[in-house]
Amino acid sequence: MDVTSSSGGGGDPRQIEETKPLLGGDVSAPEGTKMGAVPCRRALLLCNGMRYKLLQEGDIQVCVIRHPRTFLSKILTSKFLRRWEPHHLTLADNSLASATPTGYMENSVSYSAIEDVQLLSWENAPKYCLQLTIPGGTVLLQAANSYLRDQWFHSLQWKKKIYKYKKVLSNPSRWEVVLKEIRTLVDMALTSPLQDDSINQAPLEIVSKLLSENTNLTTQEHENIIVAIAPLLENNHPPPDLCEFFCKHCRERPRSMVVIEVFTPVVQRILKHNMDFGKCPRLRLFTQEYILALNELNAGMEVVKKFIQSMHGPTGHCPHPRVLPNLVAVCLAAIYSCYEEFINRSDYDDWRPSLASLLQPIPFPKEALAHEKFTKELKYVIQRFAEDPRQEVHSCLLSVRAGKDGWFQLYSPGGVACDDDGELFASMVHILMGSCYKTKKFLLSLAENKLGPCMLLALRGNQTMVEILCLMLEYNIIDNNDTQLQIISTLESTDVGKRMYEQLCDRQRELKELQRKGGPTRLTLPSKSTDADLARLLSSGSFGNLENLSLAFTNVTSACAEHLIKLPSLKQLNLWSTQFGDAGLRLLSEHLTMLQVLNLCETPVTDAGLLALSSMKSLCSLNMNSTKLSADTYEDLKAKLPNLKEVDVRYTEAW
Questions:
Q1: Taking the model in full, what pTM does it have?
Q2: Proportion of the chain above pLDDT 70, given as a percent
Q3: Is the pLDDT of residue 233 over 50?
Q4: What domains are defined for the chain?
Q5: Which has fewest Cβ within 10 Å: 16, 232, 370, 525?
């Protein structure tokens, strides 16, 4: 049959009122109608609240009647109908087609050719029938029961209208008309008795395509369209292209009311219901841009905190299990891209165990951990973990497995994220020592990896670290005598350390005997130690036997020279990457005449101080790498230091 024409009539005008135009139109029947078709809105009311799934295909009986429009009424009122054919019909995007294109359905029926879709209801008519009015004829579809008939009816109506909207909105003319059509489209989706994800997604995809193909819209037109589709977004995720459009709006107009009033419920739904950002990364990007837009508002961080509070809920336990991991995923993605504000969710007790577990294995970029703003925000979160008495929370401060850094390592003095003098590290050690981690194994790990930071903090009077050093001595964790003596000297440098060490000695008299043997021969000060730390340590005990002292990567300056010259046995001094300068070199050259090895690599010394070394005749190894050494001074030193055998002058003028 020929169904390509778009002209032709629908039914008898004396019995059936002509339908209004598809876009925004309404269909109603005049009073007293006893036969013919039940119009769309009337049929919807007859559904009595029934919901249907959108049909994509199905089996149904088909009968086609070809007739002039003037004879339609006579044919429909007659009891005679031609033969019926069984067909398996598919409701494609553009047409109604049969899996077996023969007989009545030899050719597909384009939705554009269907002038009307109606329910048949008259006395002695075939049961459960639909009437499709096409140019020059009528297609009758007979279902097995009334529910299937209504399902076919609403599905065909939907397919036909969506097809028409796609055509109309694919070539817009005036945007005020387009906006009106979008509103009508949204209303149609909201009032449809069809219950299917595509019912709300199809209009969103149409609008998404419309926006992607028309990039010259004004800001006001953008906002009007967003407001128009807002009702559909309350229960549906925006498609990917629409997310791109929303992201652009958040970046360009973060203070617009659309962000607060329209995007907030959309983002809330995403955080509550999204199951995998990996499958829909643009949802994550949109959520990220939304949060950044909130932060642009006046008192932005307070607005963000209120948003997080709304996601958690007013009770002590959050009712939405997906919110926390989704927020973490969004924030981590933002960190990798720009290291921006890390949203705090650690204030909620019920979220803290999961948050600690989620963050524990994350390999943050070194650049992010070194970023001052990010480190400050993250430090607050880690501090909350360190204060939480629950083992499932504070155990996440440790690394996931051996050889990997956890928060315990990253925030220790000298760690990449440490921006203080070790207060957070001390808090972490305190909570771990107060739990099941107060074991020899934990002390061994500290002695192997974090002995320097522990000694530095103990030297500054931190009670937790003093306890740690005492336990290391008590449990015989340290085998090296020099290290043991250095720990003892560290303990005796503060009042709290001296008191606790005396209590330990009362329990173990052999420690006193160890101390009587004299001070250590080797000593390494922890990184970030200061002149005051060195002075405190050297004044705490006997260091007459000290031969090798390393101050590398500490914060000492020339001021510490007055303490170094009191070490009569010193033969090796490492000042690599310190602030030790010319004044200190002059003092050393006058007193440490027995010094044999001196490392000045990456120190601020100049020729004025280096020339003074010519009096240190015992020097046999001198490292002046990356200093302000000149070629003339180097030649002078070689001539006046006869025992000099190893010299490093790389990255100097003498190189």
A1: 0.62
A2: 86
A3: yes
A4: 37-159 (2.30.29.30), 442-520 (no CATH), 547-648 (3.80.10.10)
A5: 370
